[in-house]
Amino acid sequence: MKIGIVGVGAIGTVLGTLLNSKGIEVDLIDGFKENVIAMQKNGTEIRGSIQVKTHGHAYYLDDLTDKYDLLFLLTKQFDNKEVLNKLLPHLHSTSIICTLQNGAPEESVAEIIGKDRTIGGAVGFGATWIKPGVTELTSKKKALEEFAFEIGEMNGEVTERIKAVNAILQNVGGSEVSNNLLGIRWSKILMNATFSGMSAALGCTFGEVLDDPRGYWCLAHLADETIKVAYAQGIDLVKMQDQDLGLLELNDRTPKEILSKFPYFKKTWDQHRDTKASMLQDLEKGRTTEINYINGVVSNKGKEYGIATPYNDMVVKIVKAKEKNKEIKTLHYIDEFFK
Prior knowledge:
There is one protein chain. The protein is 45% helix and 17% strand. It is built from 14 helices and 12 strands. The protein has helices spanning 10-21, 33-42, 80-87, 106-113, 141-147, 160-169, 181-202, 206-211, 213-232, 255-260, 262-269, 278-284, 295-305, 310-325; strands at 3-6, 26-30, 44-48, 52-54, 58-60, 68-73, 91-99, 118-123, 127-131, 134-137, 149-153, 175-177. The protein has an 8-stranded mixed sheet with strand order 5-2-1-6-7-8-11-12, with helices on both faces. The chain has a 4-stranded mixed sheet with strand order 4-3-10-9.
């Protein structure tokens, strides 16, 4: 099977390094030439909670010549149209693209390559891109081993091909197949809208958000809004990190009720406390974030279904302002949620 990873940033480097280290040959495909040159010269390396270094074939996206049986898509969603059109000549009739991007990109991916070639899933670990070819795994090793991926078919069927892709991903860490891809996606949106959203808005790690009582108050409301928007669409959330995320829904929003949710947040996210959101990493590099595909999705769907989402709206407002103003460390923005 000819396999490639498209978008070799923080998560893509972890995926590619571990697969290549296990003897599963994977091409590393990227649109950032400096990254490709470094990977060709030095290979790839994971630091942090695990240490692995290996060497795989690396290619610039525009220089591809082969056709692929399986591609893992890890580029930013706003680049999908350009990237996927460049990939089309390198797909055959039974090729598969497994999008592991943030948000819920399957429909837009399928519009370009076809539903029959599209599967998707969520990533359950965090990593920070250090430099070309080098990434730090910021989640604990146990999180990678137990909750690395959840994937599924768009129609919910448990097919032979989804089982085969899952078997490949199990060489990286814990991976499961689900018959509820939208549930996976919205459960991951919840995880991203809370901690990734606040990490980007405040310019800090997940742990710093969790340790601030005001940050925790915001997390509780962000989760509640996301759950209510998912339920309004008829989407059932799935367990993630062995936690029933539906239990984070609020009924009366009293301080006592909000405080009662803290053990769930801590158990799920404490193992990722050293992680910085990929959106924060984008802000640090002066790049556009994926805020529109994370908290922005909650806000937009909330408007569509008549669900108020003031906390998600505020995260979007702050991150967009930071993109414009080139701000990074902004813990003072916590005050904006309480005005």
